[in-house]
Amino acid sequence: MRALLIVDVQNDFCPGGALPVPDGDAVVPVINRLMDAFPLVLASKDWHPPETIHFQKWPPHCVQGTPGADFHPQLRADKIQYVLLKGTGDRDDGYSAFEATNLNLAEFLRQHGVTELYVTGLATDYCVRATTLDALREGFRTYVVTDAVRAVDVTPGDGERALQEMQQAGASLVSSADILQAEQAST
Q1: What does the domain layout of the chain look like in residue ranges?
Q2: Which CATH architecture has domain 2-186?
Q3: Does residue 57 have an active-site annotation?
Q4: Which of 92, 123, 145, 184: CA 20 to 30 A from 158?
Q5: Per residue of the chain (187 residues), what is the pLDDT tens digit?
Q6: Largest alpha-carbon pair distance within the chain?
């Protein structure tokens, strides 16, 4: 079985948010189109307390219970079956969805027979990268949907370097069109 994982498509990471990823909201329509092609859809959220060491590295963002921590309003959140909360402690960065504090993601995926994980979301060079590398370490066939991720690019090219690193670690890079065409061909 395969699952779609949406990483941190939250208001604070989209234009107008506290820590916007350039064109972060451009992933929303792509992810929305993909959701129906997967029997299992999960999403992670940064869910930081108001005071955390994480905010020594980054501006405050995705604070628990604030509008900035909500999913982007156009994301089809009704299609998300499980939400993973990460970065929930005052000493917790929580970059990877596998660090979720409300669900052991690796165990959950195995219990549901998932062998293939398709990763989308924000940001390519941080949380998508960390999640993908952890998925590979956990033994899942892992795919990064390249038109459904965007990078912070603190240093220009960080996103491209992250994609190369994930691919070298064993992840496959795919487009949403490839996934949807394969889905159409199988029906």
Answers
A1: 2-186
A2: 3-Layer(aba) Sandwich (3.40)
A3: no
A4: 92
A5: 999 999 999 999 999 999 999 999 999 999 999 999 999 999 999 999 999 999 999 999 999 999 999 999 999 999 999 999 999 999 989 999 999 999 999 999 999 999 999 999 999 999 999 999 999 999 999 999 999 999 999 999 999 999 999 999 999 999 999 999 988 887 6
A6: 50
